[in-house]
Design goal:
Layout: H1 2-23, H2 50-57, H3 64-68, H4 78-82, H5 110-113, H6 118-126
Length: 128
């Protein structure tokens, strides 16, 4: 009986994480680490990173508001990093996987910069 309860409790986070990954336009490259600090939340702490907290705050849904945020404060919007700049839950043309991790500071790739607006690019150079 105890084994069944423990197994059910341990299996719950994996199901939720799998469901959450399916709610993003793509999560094939970074999987759990889009939202979590560890690649395997069951291996230890399942702490959320900043994008994970923002995703949770958005009702665990990918929205245009979430796409416009820069959760990890690395100069790229979440949408640019995920590959859906406008947040319509449709991958942008030619995107097959995340260009960088929306929950990892300093992981803004050049591919994500291609989707930044002129004002976002100017802000990077002006230090705003």
């Amino acid at each position: 009986m105890i084994v069944v309860v423990v197994t059910a409790v341990l299996a719950a986070p994996v199901g939720a994480t799998t469901d959450d990954m399916a709610r993003l336009p793509v999560s094939s490259r970074f999987l759990c680490t889009n939202c979590h600090i560890l690649a395997d939340p069951q291996a230890g702490s399942a702490d959320l990173n900043d994008f994970g907290f923002d995703f949770l705050g958005a009702g665990r849904l990918w929205t245009s508001e979430l796409a416009q945020l820069d959760s990890d404060d690395d100069g790229c919007t979440n949408g640019a990093e995920i590959g859906d700049v406008d947040g319509n839950n449709q991958l942008d043309d030619g995107i097959e996987f995340e260009s960088s991790n929306p929950g990892l500071t300093g992981d803004c790739s050049s591919a994500a910069w291609e989707h930044m607006s002129w004002s976002e690019l100017k802000d990077l150079f002006n230090g705003s």
